[in-house]
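Sample pair:
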Amino acid sequence: MFKPLIFYIGLRYTRAKRRTQFISFITLTSVLGIALGVTALITVLSVMNGFEAELRERILGMTAHATATGRFGQLDDWQTLDKKLVDYPHVQGTAPFITGQVMINADRRVSGTMLNGILPDYESKVSDVGQKMKYGALSDLVPGEYGIILGLELSHYLGAAIGDKITVISPQINSTPAGIVPRMRRFTVVGVFQVGMYEYDRNMALIHLDDAAKLFRLDSAVSGLRIKLDDLFNAPQITRGMAKDLSDDYQVSDWTLAHNNFFRAIQTEKRVMFIILLLIVAVAAFNIVSTLVMVVTDKRGDIAILKTQGLTSASIMGIFMVLGSIIGIVGTALGTVGGILLALNVETIVPALERLFNVQFMAADVYYISELPSKLVWGDVYAIAGMAFFLSLLATIYPAWQASRINPAEVLRYE
């Protein structure tokens, strides 16, 4: 009795009488539709956020935030540039590297591979590969001993284990009395790394920088310097300033240039998925229209009596907007709670389902990563919940307006 009349009547209409069971069933389906749509939207966006964060972490864990090289694609004196960058603002570490495409042969297996020459002490400053070693360590790469570290998938394909000998074939050639032959060198497998990304685990190998220089005939030159920054999202601005401060003999690029299209595609896909799933929420929300239309038809007599007792058209409209808003609030709240719980437990639920049904939803040789990550962003949750409630409120306007236009004389004439 202490509740405002409009809210009291609106709440009263949510309870079903025996003759309005069907209307209550339609109301329940509207609530469940909104809840399922909100749950799906929160979960899918959380998984896509997790994918983006995981891919960025794994890609940038193996590649540098920025790269500096010479005008002609190599650095003849990398120590000079390293001294210039060691105290440069925002730079946390640098490491020289030599990279090139090679063929690796082990017994009867041959594979094209990206071969990277590194200095173990420097590499740990710019990448996480040292923390991803499955067997061995980066320190096992000793100059002159021609040791090599393979990605896990590459070692499986070649059938090469620690201590095995493999042949690395360079695209450069040697002129011999027998003719022109490619440069070849025997290496010993001293380690295996696994970063959890098939592209790197299958197609990358590491050797010592000095061995790479001999293999590719670079003498004291390197391909460039990898640079780790304190803020990877500010890399474009930092590298632009770095390029201005260095001489024209150097070229500086950042990770966004190498992977810009990839991450832009992920963002585009995320927006498209948001729109598609929001349409599901919209369809569920506009089921409220049919629900309220049936309620208005059923309550025509009640509306007429309320108007004759002095209730204004605006108040009648408010009653049905309260009823529709309750449906939207309950559906949105249930969906938000369900979406949060599902998003926070995706990494537990999916492996359990894989074990239960003996399937693998994401094969490592097909997808970039073989696990289903999830990252709940509260900003997305607030936006989804707000959008769902707004659509629910929007759906109440027309039926409520129709209810406010009912003429009491026309209705009560036949009562």
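The radius of gyration is 33 Å.
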